[in-house]
Every structure is written in structure tokens, then in C-alpha cells.
Amino acid sequence: MAQGTVQVTHTGTSRWRRRTGEYASLAAALEAAADGDVLTIAPGTYRENLVVERAVTLRGPDGSQGSVRIAPADGVPLTLRASAVVQDLHVEGQDAAAPAVLIEEGTPELLDVRVVTRSAAGLEVRGGARPTVRRCTVDNPAGIGIAVVDGGGGVFEECEIVAAGQEGVAVRSGARPRLERCRVHHAAGSGLTATGEHSSLEAVGCEIYEVRGSGVQITGRATAHLTDCDVHRTTADGITLDTDAVLTLADCRIHDIPENAVDLRSRSVLTLTRTTVRTFGRNGLSVWDPGTRVDANQCEIFDSTGDYPAVWVSDGATAVLDSCRVHDVPDALFVLDRGSRADVVDSDLSQVRNTAVSVSDGATAQLDDCRIREAATGAWFRDHGSGGTLNNCAIDATRTGVIVTKGADPVIERCVIDSPGEAGAYVSAGGRGSFLNCRVTGSGGYGFHVIDGCRTTLRKCRTERCARGGYEFADAGPDAGPDTGPVVEDCTSDESAGLRPAPGTREPAVQTAPRSPGLLGSIPGQRRTEQEPLVTAVEPGRPVRDAQDVLGELDALVGLDSVKREVRALIDMIEVGRRRQQAGLKAASVKRHLVFTGSPGTGKTTVARLYGEILASLGVLEKGHLVEVSRVDLVGEHIGSTAIRTQEAFEKARGGVLFIDEAYALSPEDAGRDFGKEAIDTLVKLMEDHRDAVVVIVAGYTAEMERFLSVNPGVASRFSRTITFGDYGPEELLRIVEQQADEHEYRLAPGAAEGLLKYFTALPKGPAFGNGRTARQTFEAMVERHAGRVAQVADPSTDDLTLLYAEDLPAQP
């Protein structure tokens, strides 16, 4: 067959009527062809505008894919108006106002066609056409890759948009195509877009990437269904829904998005199933406006690269997360504005740098059977009208489990808050809330901390192993009304003091129902204080003890030999300086501010208290009392409040010691929008302006405190020395248990001391090891096991009631 000719194989109703003819042009061949004929096109370039109106087959020669170019100077190179088959052609167009391939009618089939063009669209499907397009590619840097419009449809299988000056695939005006295993990339507009009522797009096994815009955009009442698709490496949002759009994602992957992974607004509805959202710069899910809703089931949202909440619900929108995981993000879920709502069921929120759940501006959040782990704050209900319910949730390893402030009123029911660093629940600034059948265990601060006379309800709650106390209540001051303060009913604790109302002439803020005491006593009572959250102060009005008496108490502490030497050396310097001044001599300047480093439970707070007393006895400090604070006391929730809190804590410590526990939390590694720097700056200025009024001690883990001082040279320069508190050895832990036994009138039976030594030697010394606290908890566990054993004895002797045996030791954790 000659170059540039078209061979037409005419087919009839019987094989003997087949005949073949050759034509010099495609137009002539098409004119001669009838339905069912095959047009085999010789290699070459054809400057013709083809219009196929019969069910024929157009194809290049066997084995010469791409050798046939259809490339007219203008207009539409190839128009299909019949159920034809087009195979192995290369189509080129130059008309910015027309498509390169136009399919107007029928059910044509396009196979291995390559469209390289600078047209309005690479391939356009209109009206009633329903083509099947397989293994075709479109390269159109001037316009749309594939446009399906005006009710068109069809199936596109294993096709690729290699470049598009506008959208990769555009669906509008009631069109309904289906894409299977297609790739869309290097588009200057959205990768896939559907708009207009009755428009619908279905994509299965597709990949959309390297898009200078949104990966997928559904708007104007259009619908779309994506299954097993990848959307990644866009410059705008991964997926955008607007104006009554409806999208379903199943088994999809959305990742490496610099903006919102998914953004939906204006009554749009999104359903996600088994879909992962990761590596996004703003929100993973951003949900706005009344009537807008997202339903996520078995999805995972993680690995944020920005400083925004993973899930953002605002302006009256609704989000439902069922069996989902959200992790490695700055904040997990923010719900804000009246009418906005989030329902989270059987989901995990973990490794959250700031707040796992934040509810504000009148919004509502409902969490059922969820797990919150490793977050600065588990749930924060921020202001008036904000509320919801946490039901049967586990909150583990947070700095603060639940915060309620400024009139918020949530219900926290049957929740367990384990190992919070500062407080299990913290209520302040007019917050309310009801805590029902909740338990706080292993708090580094208080279990429940309610200040400002907040009207919080605690019913059938329990605290265990809380370092500063199970319950701490501070009133709102002398001007507060009678109906202030928490209401407490049937609550218990493993502490040694009983829950009692605060002293005073007004009606007590705490109401208690009958309860049974714990093994070593029941709950500590409310203490009426003037301090801010987590602030404890030794009463400044007590008589000042002699320095030698206080040093004697320091020496009586178990272990801490190097700490005692450091403190004595410092006291000696201060005392000699004082005497030199009295003698009219120059005294060396001694900075009294200290850094305490070491693990929890090593006696840092106790030594700080004794240090303050010693300085008071020497006349260096006026009172010598201790005010203990942590991040939650100093850092506010809005701009300006941090400086106020820090100044108030400093004033409470005037004449004494301000002890800042876990001070490194004021300067997190990923600070972002954190207000901790404001607390540090305020503190540094106060230390300079009032250098003789307050001694400041900052404390925390050794490595973290080294980082804290290295990134804050202004703070580091204010401290004279660092004192390291080493972990207790087995013998020292044994001595603590022996002291506890003596204090509570127990004795160690023969063999119990040896058993304790073996127990403490084998005990894991990881980050959770509590040193002295671990020893006290071990003693409490032995007492509990002892009680279970002796309770079975009908007439116990004194030895039975007091002796603790090796078998009373708890199992190793």
C-alpha cells in the first residue's frame, strides 16, 4: 500500500462479496465505506478534518503504532458520529476554539489513540455519545484534557492525560463518564472536575498527581464516586467540594497535599470509607457551612506537615468519624461555631502535639468509645455554649486530660484518664461540666483540679496515684456568690485524707454524699486557696525554722547525696556572703535561681521547699514559701492571658520560691502557635526586675531541660547552677518502703526486705519509672494485697494485721 493512501476493505453479508480498494484521501475512503468496513491507513500525515458517520473501523497499519498522523491546519481533526472503531492513530489539533477529537453520537471505540494538540480540549464527548476509550493518551498543554459535556458519557480505561492547560478531565452539564485505571497529571487546573446538576463522575483505580490546582473538584450539585484512587502532589487542595456537591471515596489515598487534603463547603456531602489522608499542609478534612457533612468510616488521617487541625468543622457543619485513626498531627479535631457538630465513635486520636479535641464558640462534640493518647490536651471545651459528651473514652498520656473553661458545659461519663502530666481534669474561668463515673490514675499533678469557684459536678469519680492530690478545689474569692464551687457526690480516692468542705463562714462549695473510705483513707478535701491552677503554696505565715533544723530534714531524705552536697555548698556561699556584707566586705554575687534535672519522683519538689525555708532562715527571702506551677498555670488560651497568668504566679511566690515543674513544656520543639514563649519572656523580665524578691527553680527531665536552656539563652543566663537528681537504687527504694511502713504502722516480715530488693532490681527503669513514687505505690500495693489476705482470717493477731510478707509484693509491670 502506497504512502499516504487508505485501503478500504468492504464487507458484505457473505465472505465472497468482500473486496478491497485504495483511496488517495481519508475523505474519499470514508465516502466509499459502508457500515462494517475496515479502513487501514498507510503511514503518513493527513491534513484532513475527518467526520466519521458510519460504523466503520479506522486503524493504522499493523506494527506501526503512531505512524498515522491526522493533523489539519484548523478545525476539529476527528469527529465521530457513529459507533465506529478508531485504533492506532495520532491526532493533532491547533484550533483553540475546537477539540482535537469530538464524539457526538453513538458508542464508538477508541483504542491506542494518541492526541497531541493545542486545542480547546484533547477529546470531547457530547450529547448521547457513549464511547469506550482504551489505552489512549492526551497531551494538551493549551486546554482541557478530556471534556464530557451535555449529557455525554462513556468509559475510559487505562487512559492517560500527560498534560493539560486547564482541567485534566472536565465533566459538566449532566454528563456521566466512568474512568478506570486512568492517570491524570501535569494539569494546570483541577485534575478531575465535575460541575452542574445531574453531572456525575465515577473513577476506579485512577491516579491524579502533579496538578497545579485541586486534584478533584466537585461543585454545583454534581456527584462523584472514587474507588481505589490516588490523589497527590497538587498545589492547591487535594479534593474540593462546593455548593451541594456529593462525593464518595472508598479505599482511596490522598497524600502530599500542601493545602487542605479535603475541603467541602455550602451543603456538600462527603462519604469516606477505608481512605487514608496523610502528609497535608493545612487541614486533613476541612468542613464548612450549615448542611455540609462528612462521614468517615475506617479512615486514617495522619502525618500533617503544617500547624493546623487535622479535622476542622465550622460554621454549622457536621462531621462523623467512625472507627477512624487520627495521629501525628498538631491538633486532631477542632469543632467551632454554633450549630457545628462532630460525632466520633470507636476512633483513635494519638500523637497529637497540641489538643486532640477542641470545642468552641457554641459547637458540640460527641465522642463514644474513643481512645485519646499522647496529646498535650485530650479534650478542651473552651467557652459558653460549647459542650457535648465524652462517653466511655480512654485518655492516656496527655499533659491534661480534659479542660473546661469560660462557661463550657460538657458531660464526661465513664471515662478513664491515665497518666496525665499535669491534671486529669482542669476546670477554670467559669467552666462547668459534669464528670460522672470517671477515673483518673497516675497523674503527675492533680486528678481533678477545679478553680475560680467553678460549678462543676463530680459524681462517683475516683482518683488513684495522683502526685499532687486526687482533688484540688480553689474558690472564686470573697466576692463569690453562694452557688459557686463544685458539687461532689460519692467520689473516692486512694489518698490518706478525707474529703471535707472548705473552711469558712459561707455555705461550703463542696457537697458530699456518704462514701466508704479507701484502703489508706479517702479523698483529700477541698482547700480554699488563692492560687491559680496546679499552684501549691506552703503557708507563708508559719514560723520560720532554724537553718540547721531544715538542713537536718534535708539530710534525713533517702539518697540524694550529691544533691545534698550541692545544696550545702550553695547555702555556705550565701551564708558566707551574708557574713562578709555584715563585716563591711565585698560579697561574691551568688545567683540563687536553680535548675533541677532528673526523673519524676526523685525529690525535686521536696528539696525546693527545703531550699526556700533555708533561705528564709538566713534572711535572704522574706517568707520562704513554695509556689509550684507548671505549664497549664502559666500559659493561657488566648493572646495576652499568658503574661497575666505568669505575673500572678510570680506575685504569689514573692518572698519565696517559684518552682516550675516540667519547665521545658514552655518551649516545645515544634512551638508553632504556642504561647509558651510569652510565659518565658515575661518570666525573664520579672526575674530581672525583682531579682531579690523571688527565687525561681525550673525542673524537668535532664535531656529536655538541656534543650530548654539551649534554645532560651535568656533563661539560661539567669540560673547559677544545675543540680541533677539521680534515680534511686534498689536499696534506697527499700528504705522508702520501710519509712512508709513505719509511718503507717506496718512491719516487714523476715524475707520481705530481700524480696523488695529483688523486686526493685528487676523493675524496668524506663521513662515511666517513678522512683520514690514507685516505692510508695509498691507499698500501697503490698498493703492492698495484705488486706485481701488478712480479711479471710477470722481472728487476726497483731502480727497478722501489721506484717507484710514477700508474697504481698505486686507482679512486675
UniProtKB/TrEMBL annotation:
Disordered: annotated span: 477-531
Domain AAA+ ATPase span(s) in chain numbering: 590-729
Keywords linked to the UniProt accession: ATP-binding, Nucleotide-binding, Repeat
CDD domains: AAA
Pfam families documented for this protein: AAA, AAA_lid_6, Beta_helix
Domain (Carbohydrate-binding/sugar hydrolysis) ranges: 41-172, 313-474
Family: Belongs to the CbxX/CfxQ family.
Protein name as it appears in the record: Sporulation protein
The species this protein was found in: Streptomyces griseoviridis
